[in-house]
C-alpha cells in the first residue's frame, strides 16, 4: 500500500478514541475490514463512547470473543437488557417486545432450546437430505445456461426458503411468505425493505397470525417431526405466551434463512475471486465438505452478537462495567492471525476449517449449524454435477446492515460442462 492510500484510508487516520465501527455503510461497501485490522493490532478491546447505538465495547480478537461467549453468567443475552444485537431489542420505535430463546439466559433458554432442537438433530437431517437434494436439483435444472441471472434470488433465497418450509411443514405454495418475514424481521426503514417500523410490526403480526393458525391445527393432530408440531406438543413450549411464541418462530425463520442464503451467495463470489481455488474444487469435488466451513468463516453471515455485562468484569486487560454493551465481532475474530493461519486467504482445503466463530460458541452456539452445512454441501454437489462454472459477471450488491453480512444481488452466468 502506498503512503498516499494510507493517508486517505479513514481506518488508519481516525483517532482510536473516535473510532466507531457500527456504521452499516462500512459493511455495505465492504470496507470494514481495515478498521477491524487496526483494532486487533492497536486496541483489541475497544470502547466507543458515542454512536447511533449508544456507547459500546468492541471485542475483536478470537480468544477474547471466546472468553465472552463461554461466560454467560457475566455476559447476558437477555432481551430486556438489550438482547443480542448492537441495536437494543426493546427500546424506542424499533421495539417489538419479542421473546426468543437466543435472547434469554439459562435456565429458561436451555429448556426452550431443548424443546426445538430435535428438529435439527442428525437423525432428522438424514430424513431431510434426500428432500433437500431433490429440491436443489429442481432449482438448478430450471436455470438458463449462458444468460445473466441473479444468483441471490434464483438460487440462494429459493433453496433456503424451501428448506425452511420443509422444517416447518409450511404450506408449499406460500413459502415465499417465509422469505418476506425473514427480510422484514431484520429490516429498518433505511434498508428500503419496510417504509416504517410500524409497517414492520404489522407484517410480523400477520406472520404471528398465520403461524397461530398452523399452531392450532397441529395441536389437534398427532405429533410430527416438524418444528411447529414439536413446539405445540413439548411441555417446555406449549404454554408459551403469544409474544414468546412469535419470537421463537421469527428466530427460526431468520436464523435459518438469511444466514444460509448469504453463505450460498458468498461461496460463489469467493470462488470467483480465487480462481485457483475454483480450479482445485473442479478437479476434486471431494473437497466440498472441507470447503463449506471455510465459506462460512469467509462470509461470516452474522457480523456480531452482543451481550450486556451483569457485573464488572475484565476482557483483554480492559475494565468492563456492569451494564456495559459488549459486541463480539465474529467478522474480525475470523480474520485473527494469532488463531487462524493466513486468515485473509480463502483456502478450500484449509486444515481445521471448522475452527471459526461464525456459529458463535457456548450455550447459544447456533442450533442450525448442521442444517446450514448440509444445505451448502448439497447445493455444491449438485452445482458441480451440472455446471463447469457459476461465473460472476457484475458487481455484487451488499446488504445495508451491521448485523447481517450478505448480498441483495449477485449477477452470474452459468457455464455448462
Ligand atoms: C444461533 C449463526 C444457520 C437457528 C446462532 C448464533 C449465530 C448463528 C452466530 C448465535 C451464537 C452465539 O450467540 O454464540 C448462523 C450461521 C448460519 C446459521 C452463520 C448459517 C451459515 C442457522 C439455521 C438455523 C439456525 C439453518 C435453523 C434452522 C439458530 C437458532 C439459534 C442460532 C435457533 C439460537 C441458539 C441459542 O440461542 O441457543 N446462529 N446460523 N441457524 N441459530 Fe444459527
Automatic annotation (TrEMBL):
Pfam families per record: p450
Gene Ontology MF terms in the entry: heme binding; iron ion binding; monooxygenase activity; oxidoreductase activity, acting on paired donors, with incorporation or reduction of molecular oxygen
Swiss-Prot/TrEMBL cofactor(s): heme
SUPFAM superfamilies attached to this UniProt entry: Cytochrome P450
The keyword Cell division is annotated on this UniProt entry: no
Swiss-Prot/TrEMBL keywords: Heme, Iron, Metal-binding, Monooxygenase, Oxidoreductase
PROSITE patterns assigned to the protein according to its UniProt record, in alphabetical order: CYTOCHROME_P450 (PS00086)
Gene3D superfamilies the record matches: Cytochrome P450
Keyword set includes Lipid metabolism: no
Top-level taxon of the source organism: Bacteria
InterPro entries linked: Cyt_P450 (IPR001128), Cyt_P450_B (IPR002397), Cyt_P450_CS (IPR017972), Cyt_P450_sf (IPR036396)
Family per similarity comment: Belongs to the cytochrome P450 family.
Protein name from the UniProt record: Cytochrome P450
Provenance organism: Tepidicaulis marinus
